[in-house]
Amino acid sequence: MADMVQSVELLLDTELDDAVRREWQMLFDAGLPSQARHRGASNRPHVTLAVADEFASLDARIGSIPVAPFPLRLGPLVVFRGRTATLARLVIPSPALLDLHATVSSLVGDARGSRSHTEPGQWTPHVTLARRLAGAELTEAIDQLHSEPGVLIGNASALRRWDGDGRVEWFVGGSTQNR
Q: What is the DSSP letter of 177?
């Protein structure tokens, strides 16, 4: 079993969250892998800003980051390849998103087990739609979503922390929407 990790995540406003959940449901209804299969209360669309094995002193520091809602645009589909594929929507970078990511990255830069793929310049902001897709499933998933809008528009609403070991989340900044 893989080690669980901790993360700092950007949550979406209600309308954008609902739009992503509709796409999750389309995949689920087609019998495909989908984030909709995860029924836990903490499973929600998000943009991962930072990942590490442990954020020992992060919470006190990150709680001071103001997260006012700002526009967030989800663009075209993207595929991340490994043994299987992950299907996601790219997040179109904005100055507000890049500034928030840089702030979070500067706070977690020394965290134990920090993952380089979330560092500025190496980060691909996205919202995951489905994981562990085999070849034919990936093709079918893309076909299922082909009629969806090319860009989903909404706002970022809050920051949360996720502890994969404890399987718990807590909110550290932003509005109370989607909590």
A: T
